[in-house]
Amino acid sequence: MLVIGLLFVANTWAAAPRAYITNSDGTISVVDTGSNSVVATIPVGEFGQVAINPAGTYVYVTDYSNNQVLVIDTRQKTVVATVPVGHGPGGIAIGGPPSDFFDVISNSYYIYIEALFKAGITQGCGYGDFCPSENVTRHQMAAFLYYCAKLIGFRRRELLPILRAD
């Protein structure tokens, strides 16, 4: 039952990965990387540079001609705010690492990986990496489930009879 619940949560909350491409006509194309298709075109102004917040909920785009940064809501795929900045903004970056792991990027999944790390359910694959593209072995899955069970209140002596059952 626990496994089904975890899979349901992951599939329900995970958003499709998106790519944000600046175009010379002053727009951004939003590309669904799963289907490799443009799902939206958003007007943003001239010479846009892009940064995405760690949670993947907002995209920030510089607008060189209008001396501002536009804030795009990734669910709505629309500009929800403008921030006045200095003359001719160019580069843009979001500060700080998005994760405790070097190989976990800011996408719609990193918050779940971070939560599992902070709860003690995973320590990654070593050397500061999580190895998000690697398969999970049955041994690793058993460890994940064991630590999840402990997290929700099962004690080791309650789990041992279950673990020893064939």
Describe the structure.
The protein is an alpha+beta fold and 166 residues long. The chain folds into two domains: 2-10 and 97-164, no CATH class; 17-84, Thrombin, subunit H. The chain is built from four helices and seven strands, in the order H-E-E-E-E-E-E-E-H-H-H. It has helices spanning 2-13, 110-118, 138-151, 156-164; strands at 18-22, 27-32, 37-43, 50-52, 58-63, 68-73, 78-84. The strands form two sheets. It has a four-stranded antiparallel β-sheet, with no helix packed on it. Strand 2 and strand 3 (37-43) form a beta hairpin. The two termini are 17 Å apart. Mean pLDDT is 77; it is low at 1-15.
Describe the secondary-structure layout:
Blueprint: H1 2-13, E1 18-22, E2 27-32, E3 37-43, E4 50-52, E5 58-63, E6 68-73, E7 78-84, H2 110-118, H3 138-151, H4 156-164
Antiparallel strand pairs: 1-2, 2-3, 4-5, 5-6, 6-7
Entry keywords:
166 residues, 2 domains, three-stranded antiparallel sheet, 27% helix
Spatial strand order of the main sheet = 4-5-6-7
Beta-strand content bin: 15-25%
Structural class: alpha+beta
Major sheet: 4 strands, antiparallel
Quote the average pLDDT.
77
* Counted beta strands: 7
- Which outline best applies? elongated
End-to-end CA span: 17 Å
- Helical amount: 25-40%
How many domain modules?
Answer: 2
Cα Rg: 21 Å
Identify low-pLDDT runs.
1-15
**Count of helical stretches:** 4
Series of secondary-structure elements, N-terminal to C-terminal: HEEEEEEEHHH
